[in-house]
Design a protein that fits this description.
2 domains; about 0% strand; disordered C terminus; Growth Hormone, Chain: A
């Protein structure tokens, strides 16, 4: 079914509509907030962003998702989820207002980023509560459809929020005072999220507080043990271990490339901060087109060749594309390279997802995918740290380019050697759809 048909199917329920609206308004707020923070740190007319500042800002947007994710459920199963959906946005509204005040008074360093980190950390609990609450407002037979519609709508709303944030930047200005006003708009939107969630019944979304559950400390220890169990299980499944290694190499190198792209468009290609942000936005758009194209071409390709072969080809292709399109250090070739790297990013991930799903035993899948999530985001952030250490403020570095291109080439070779003798995994074509 199409997205519109799915939405009409599940939107009939009043409680789902309220939960859905809560997600959409919150995601819209996130888009405005992230444009404000990232736009100021990375594309401010008041200062030239350094590699360390770019890496720090990018890490702030990802760290809560990298390390809080596996532990969020411990608390989501102890607190009323409706209360989380009401009070978490209010906490974020206050934190964002505080962030705006810090910025307005000239405090745009560590305290500013820490305040932003608090906002996104609270958001991790909010999103987990939304996911846990969904089965309480839809019929079981509609759960998969409702989940797909909710997540897709949240992504669309976040992009829409970014679309709102960009004209606000043009209206208020890109300096610290203008950014503070953008953040205040985001704070108002977060407060509106709480108002949207408030009509939901206090006990409607669970959890069943009378149910027996381990103490919080023991639950946290169980999460840690689960991650270790998942790691041990992966070690015994060579296909899954090699696939996670491949995605880890890609995400690490993609992290370096991301910071290089931010710096090049902010400090080298463009003559103004506004033009730099516009150029970077174009890279994101063409990368997104590459992601979509990968979702179209990967299923038919992997019907004809092994997924392991396709991963190897893509990593090798990334090595060549980085050198050919990035080495001139010119905007148009760099944008073309972003499109090609988008294809590689999604194509590799689709194959790795399927390999892990089929190589790992079902009782371990949840733990292994928690580990996968940490690898996926954690090594991306590690790439930021390396980029901060080796890139100049302009982002132009042939040495860094050699590291990226050589890293992809070695990753392709290493993965081929590790995966060439693994058994062919039987998977349905539908398993590779985005």
């Amino acid at each position: 079914m199409s997205y519109a048909t799915d939405l009409r199917l599940v939107i009939k329920g009043r409680d789902f509509r309220r939960l859905f609206a809560t997600r959409v308004v919150s995601a819209l707020s996130d888009g405005v907030f992230q444009v404000g923070v990232a736009g100021y740190v990375l594309f401010s007319p008041e200062r030239e962003a350094t590699a360390a500042q770019a890496a720090g800002a990018a890490a702030v947007l990802l760290l809560p998702y990298s390390f809080l994710g596996p532990f969020a459920g411990v608390f989501i199963d102890r607190w009323r989820r409706r209360e989380i959906l009401v009070y978490a946005p209010l906490i974020r509204a206050l934190a964002v207002a505080g962030t705006a005040a810090l910025l307005a008074y000239g405090h745009d360093g560590v305290l500013f980023l820490l305040a932003a980190l608090i906002v996104l950390g609270v958001n991790r609990f909010f999103l987990s509560a939304l996911s846990a609450a969904l089965p309480h407002v839809v019929e079981r037979r509609e759960l998969i459809t409702a989940n797909a519609v909710s997540v897709t709508s949240g992504t669309i709303a976040a992009f829409a929020g970014a679309g709102v944030g960009y004209p606000l930047r043009l209206l208020f200005g890109a300096d610290r005072h203008g950014t503070a006003l953008i953040l205040l708009c985001a704070a108002v939107a977060y407060a509106a999220t709480a108002l949207v969630a408030r009509p939901l019944g206090r006990d409607l979304l669970g959890p069943e507080l009378h149910a027996a559950r381990p103490e919080t400390g023991e639950a946290v220890r169980r999460v840690l043990r689960g991650l270790l169990d998942g790691a041990r299980h992966v070690r015994e499944r060579r296909a899954a271990a090699a696939a996670l290694g491949a995605i880890g190499v890609h995400r690490f190198l993609y992290g370096i490339t991301t910071i290089m792209t931010v710096l090049l468009f902010g400090n080298y290609f463009a003559k103004s901060a506004q033009a730099g942000m516009g150029g970077f936005a174009i890279v994101l758009v063409v990368s997104g087109i590459g992601y979509f194209l990968a979702a179209v071409i990967t299923p038919p390709i992997t019907e004809r060749i092994r997924k392991e072969t396709w991963i190897t080809i893509q990593l090798g292709f990334a090595a060549v594309a980085e050198v050919v399109f990035a080495a001139p250090f010119s905007p148009i070739p760099f944008i073309m390279g972003g499109f090609l790297l988008g294809i590689v990013s999604q194509g590799v991930k689709l194959c790795v997802d399927t390999i892990v799903q089929t190589a790992v035993l079902d009782p371990y899948r949840g733990r292994v995918f928690s580990l996968y999530d940490m690898i996926f985001n954690g090594l991306f952030v590690a790439g930021f740290a390396v980029a901060a250490a080796m890139l100049p403020p302009t982002g132009k570095s042939y040495a860094a380019l050699a590291v990226i291109g050589g890293g992809y080439a070695l990753g392709a070779l290493g993965y081929w050697l590790a995966a060439r003798n693994t058994p062919r995994l039987a998977t349905a074509r539908s398993d590779l759809r985005a």
